[in-house]
Design brief:
Helix content is 3%, strand content 73%. It is an all-beta fold. Among the domains are: 13-141, no CATH class; 454-506, LysM domain (Membrane-bound Lytic Murein Transglycosylase D, Chain A). Strands 16, 17, 18 and 19 form a 4-stranded antiparallel beta sheet that branches. A hairpin with a 2-residue loop joins strand 20 (399-415) and strand 21.
C-alpha cells in the first residue's frame, strides 16, 4: 500500500530566547558653576529610555539610558535646586538559537535611583535597571490533515478539531507625541522647572483587518519654582495618543501585547501668546507588538486499516499559548517620621520597582518620598522603601509569563509625628496556558500474519468511554457501518447499549 500523510503549513514566529537581568550603572555629575553648592540631597529619580537593540549569531545587546534628576538643598540659599544627568545602560546576553535574522523585542524598567553627595560640587548617581530581551524566529508549524495515495481509501481516518494560537508577527513602530500644557487655574506661573517625570500608560488594543490599533497616554508630573519667588508648586498633565501598525497578515481573532517605551523626551517651560507660562513636551516613543492569532483547523488524530497492519509514527505539536491579562491593585499606607515637623507637603513621590510572581502573589519594592516644608522655613525630605504585594492565582494549567507594576496613585497627609503617605500600585499580570496534541506523522503498511476467520457480526455491550470510532477499530469494522447497522445518529451515548458490530471486508 502507498500512503502519504498530507500536511498544511502554518506560519509562525517561534520564541527562541528570553532573558532578563538587572544592570547597575553609576555616573558622577557636577553642579554647574551658575548654581550654588549642594548642602544635601533631597531626592533622586529617573526615566528609563530605550535607545537600541541588536542581534547577532548567538548574542543580543540592548542599549539605553537613565535620565536622572537630583533635587538638592543649596548652601547659603533658600529653596531647592536640581541637576540632570544621563547614565548610559548597556547589556549583552548570550542567546542560543538567535541569528542575525531574529526578530527582537527589548524593554528597560527602572528599579531604583539613588544619589550621594561626594562634595559640594559633585554628586554620584547610581541606578539599577532591569533589562529584558526576547528573540523570535520566523518558521512554520506543520499540521497533518489526512492521507493521500492510491491506497489511502483503504484506511479509516479520524480527524479532530484544533485551535492554534501561534505568534504570527513581531512588529514595532516609532512615533512622536508633542503637546503644550497650560497650568491649571489657581497655580502660580512657572519660574524654573525643577523636576519632571513622564510615564506611559497603556490603553486599548484592537485590530482592523491586518492592522493593529493601539492607544495610550503620557502622564507628566512636574515640580517647579514659582516665578519671582522660592515657592514650590506641582502640576500634572496628560497627552493621549492612538497609533496604527500594519501586521502584513489578515487576522482572525488576534491577541496582541503592545509594550511602549520612551526613547527620548524634551520638557521645557514656554511662554504662550499674552505672556502666560506653560510647558512644552515632546515624547519619542517606540511601541513593540507581539501578536498571536487563533487559527482553526483539523488534524489527523488516528487511523487504522482492515486490509493490513499499519505502522504509525506520531509527533506532539504545541498549539501555542492562550493568554489572559489581569490587573491586581494593592494599596499601602505608611507614616514617615519627619523632623523637624512638617507645615505642608510639597510633593509626594512613589516609584514601583521590578514586579515578580511567586507562590500565589505578585510583589514589588516601592520607594516613597515626601518633600515638605518645615516650621523653620526650610525644605526637607523623608523616604522609605516598602514592599507591596497582591494575591494572584493562575487558573489551572496556566503559568505566569510576566508581571509589571505601576504606581497609579500617591497622596499624603500630615499627622502627628510625621507624614502619612498612601500609594496604590497596579500589577499587570499576563498568564498563559500552553496545550499540545498528538498527531500522526507518518503511516506505513506492514505485513500481517494470516487473519483468522472472524464472525461477520458480533454482539457487544458498549462500555463507558466507547465511541463508534474505537469500536470500529477494535472489531475490524467502521464507524459508518456500526451506525448504519444500529440506526444510530451522531452524538448518542453508547455506554450500556447492546450493539451489533458488522465485520468490514478487507
Amino acid at each position: 500500500m502507498v500512503i502519504t500523510v498530507k500536511r498544511s503549513g502554518i506560519a509562525r514566529c517561534e520564541k527562541v530566547f528570553e532573558y532578563s537581568m538587572p544592570v547597575e550603572e553609576a555616573a558622577e555629575t557636577v553642579v554647574p558653576d551658575t548654581m550654588p553648592d549642594a548642602a544635601g540631597i533631597l531626592f533622586a529619580c529617573g526615566t528609563a529610555l530605550l535607545r537600541g537593540k541588536d542581534v547577532q549569531e548567538g548574542s543580543v545587546s540592548v542599549s539605553g539610558a537613565v535620565k536622572a534628576i537630583v533635587l538638592y538643598t543649596p548652601e547659603g540659599a533658600e529653596g531647592i535646586r536640581s541637576v540632570e544627568t544621563e547614565i548610559a545602560v548597556n547589556a549583552q546576553f548570550d542567546a542560543p538559537g538567535a541569528t542575525a535574522e531574529s526578530l527582537v523585542t527589548a524593554s528597560l524598567s527602572l528599579s531604583s535611583v539613588d544619589a550621594k553627595l561626594l562634595n559640594p560640587r559633585k554628586i554620584l548617581v547610581r541606578c539599577v535597571v532591569n533589562v529584558c530581551a526576547a528573540c523570535y524566529e520566523a518558521g512554520e508549524t506543520y499540521i497533518s490533515t489526512g492521507l493521500e495515495g492510491e491506497d489511502a481509501g483503504r484506511v479509516e481516518t479520524l480527524t479532530e478539531p484544533v485551535t492554534l494560537c501561534p505568534v504570527v508577527c513581531v512588529k514595532e513602530k516609532t512615533f512622536v507625541v508633542s503637546d503644550e500644557y497650560r497650568l491649571q487655574p489657581g497655580l502660580l506661573p512657572i519660574g524654573e522647572l525643577l523636576w519632571h517625570r513622564a510615564e506611559l500608560v497603556p490603553g486599548t488594543v484592537r485590530n482592523v483587518g491586518s492592522r493593529i490599533v493601539f492607544s495610550g497616554s503620557v502622564r507628566l508630573d512636574a515640580l517647579y519654582r514659582a516665578e519671582g519667588s522660592e515657592e514650590l508648586c506641582s502640576a500634572s498633565f496628560e497627552s493621549e495618543y492612538s497609533q496604527m501598525l500594519d501586521t502584513d497578515a489578515e487576522l482572525n481573532s488576534p491577541d496582541c501585547a503592545v509594550c511602549s517605551m520612551l526613547t527620548a523626551e524634551y520638557i521645557e517651560p514656554i511662554a504662550f501668546t499674552g505672556g502666560e507660562r506653560g510647558i512644552s513636551a515632546e515624547y519619542h516613543i517606540v511601541s513593540q507588538c507581539v501578536c498571536s492569532d487563533s487559527i482553526h483547523g483539523e488534524y489527523l488524530a488516528d487511523c487504522y486499516s482492515n486490509a493490513c497492519g499499519l505502522q504509525v509514527a506520531r509527533s506532539n505539536v504545541e498549539t501555542g499559548c492562550s493568554r489572559r491579562r489581569s490587573t491586581q491593585r494593592a494599596a499601602v499606607s505608611e507614616v514617615l517620621d519627619a523632623s523637624p515637623g512638617p507645615v505642608s507637603v510639597i510633593k509626594a513621590f512613589c516609584r514601583a520597582g521590578t514586579a515578580e510572581y511567586e507562590e500565589g502573589a505578585v510583589r514589588c519594592p516601592l520607594a516613597v518620598t515626601a518633600l515638605y516644608l518645615a516650621s523653620d522655613g526650610m525644605v526637607y525630605s523623608v523616604s522609605r522603601r516598602l514592599s507591596v504585594r497582591a494575591e494572584f492565582q493562575p487558573a489551572e494549567g496556566e503559568r505566569v509569563e510576566s508581571a509589571t507594576a505601576r504606581c497609579c496613585e500617591c497622596s499624603s497627609n500630615i499627622v502627628q509625628g510625621g507624614i502619612e503617605l498612601r500609594a496604590a500600585v497596579d500589577f499587570e499580570v499576563e498568564s498563559a496556558c500552553a496545550e499540545r496534541f498528538s498527531q500522526i506523522e507518518s503511516v506505513e503498511c506492514v505485513e500481517c500474519d494470516s487473519t483468522p476467520e472472524r464472525p461477520s457480526v458480533v454482539v457487544i455491550r458498549a462500555k463507558e468511554g466507547d465511541t463508534l470510532w474505537l469500536l470500529g477499530k477494535r472489531y475490524h469494522s467502521t464507524a459508518a457501518m456500526i451506525a448504519g447497522q444500529n440506526g444510530l445518529e451522531g452524538g448518542e451515548k453508547l455506554a450500556g447499549r447492546v450493539l451489533l458490530i458488522p465485520r468490514a471486508h478487507n
